[in-house]
Amino acid sequence: MHIRPYEEARDFEAVKRIWFEIGWIDSEASAEYLKGFLSLNNCLTGVLDDAAECLVMTTPGSIRYENDDLRMCAVTAVTTSRVARKQRMAQQLTALQLAAGAEAGDEVAVLGMFEQGFYDRVGFGTGSYIHTIKFDPASLMVDSGFRPPKRLTKDDWKDVSAALLARKRGHGGAVLNAPEMLKAELGWSQKENGFGLGYYDGSALTHFMWFVTDAVEFGPYSVVLYAYQSSDQLMELLALLKSLGDQVSMVEMQEPYDVQLQTLLRQPFRHRRNSKASVFANQHNTSAWWQLRILDVAACVAKRHWVGQEVSFNLVLEDPVELMLQDSNWQGCGGDYHVNFGTESGAERGHAEGLPTLNASVNAFSRLLFGIAPASSLAITDDLHTEPELLARLDEALLLPTMHLGWDF
User: Fold this and answer.
1) Cis peptide leading into 220, omega within 30 of 0?
2) What CATH number should be reported for the domain whose range is 293-397?
3) 71: which residues sit within 8 A by CB, 6+ positions away?
4) N or C: which end of the chain has fewer CB within 10 A?
């Protein structure tokens, strides 16, 4: 295998073939959006017989840690052709892209996974559960009024992107710093009858929902993107969604990070029973489809502000990505650290005498640091080991809100 940066003139046709082979595009019209999509991002290709047979793409962005942001490297595409499977191309290119992101100053990496386990080999740990609700919009118990919305089309991609960047975000809320990506995303949704409804405050789109549907008349509709800047705007969107219930029998959407959507549904269990065998079945599904890993231990630890009794310990961190980066300046996050969680948290290279030691993989420590799972749980399921007293103190010091990306990639 030979590795080289993506160049459109040389590599586009081969990369387009990969995307056709894996089913991510299915027409020449979709391929036209792909050309622009690739030009916006950082792409590395794995080459066999002078043709690109694997591509890994990253997009810069940021992710919210409590009330602060961390620089994020989003792995937004990992694609391998039919002739290049089991050659470790995807792992190698992903590792190199992580190194490039770390060297550029990115502090954490995030991706959506096709299956749990593959990206563990480059240090990723499983993210938090995301709730997806399928419900009859007429069952929403929302009494607030709503105004007639503005129609949004794929040509409004700039406004949609700006609204996503300006939206209300909680712990884990992510943004991508490549607005033009929405041009491709909304363009691709055309084949699924994609459309948007939203509201402007002056010239700015402040809150909206973007839908796709295979069946126009009665649904189901899927809300694939939405954004709002206040609770009042969220309630207006839900009231708008309820109004569609005059015709649409089922809507699917990810639960907002700041409300428990089930509490706003009338008789949710009855609706699930009565629609069980229907194409409009009401359901509540939960899965962790995404993963993350830290790239800069000190930068990530410093974002935690713990008002309780300080917790200090030695950290012995193992990073599996190191095995794939012999020729890179960045060699992963592995090594010894002295870590302190308090009102001003920090992590420094080295070892402090007299403190307990936490042994962990970067996969497990990333999950711990972002509050995805408590230390006592990770000690059972993940590669994380220490004495019971430190586990208990870490459970308290890293009790955080549930992470919610709010942007699929």
Assistant:
1) yes
2) 3.30.1050.10
3) 60, 62, 105, 106, 107, 108, 299
4) N
Whether domain 131-287 has CATH 3.40.630.30: yes
Ordered DSSP codes for 79-114: EE-TTSTTSSHHHHHHHHHHHHHHHTT--EEEEE-S
Q: How many C-beta atoms lie closer than 10 Å to residue 261's C-beta?
A: 18
Give tens-digit pLDDT for 93-140: 999 999 999 999 999 999 999 999 999 999 999 999 999 999 999 999
pTM for the structure as a whole: 0.93
pLDDT digits (tens, 9 = 90+) for 148-186: 999 999 999 999 999 999 999 999 999 999 888 899 999
**CA dist 180 → 31, 45, 69 (Å):** 16, 22, 22
Report the C-alpha gap between 290 and 115 in whole angstroms: 9
Q: Where are the domains of the chain?
A: 2-126, 131-287, 293-397
Please state the rounded mean pLDDT for residues 233-241: 97
Q: What is the CATH number of domain 2-126?
A: 3.40.630.30
Residue 324 φ/ψ, nearest 5 degrees: -105, 5
Distances (CA, A) of 325 to 55, 92, 250, 338, 366: 18, 8, 48, 25, 20
Please, what is the angle between helix 181-188 and helix 28-39, to 10°?
Answer: 160
Long-range contacts of 323-331 (CB under 8 A, 24+ apart): 324/91, 324/92, 324/95, 324/96, 324/122, 325/95, 325/96, 325/99, 328/96, 328/99, 328/103, 329/99, 329/103, 330/98, 330/99, 330/102, 330/103, 330/295
8 A C-beta contact, residue 46 and residue 83: no
101: which 2 tokens? Answer: 């992101």
Q: Which two tokens stand for residue 291?
A: 């993963």
The pairing of beta strand 130-135 with beta strand 283-287: antiparallel
Neighbours of 224 (CB within 10 A): 19
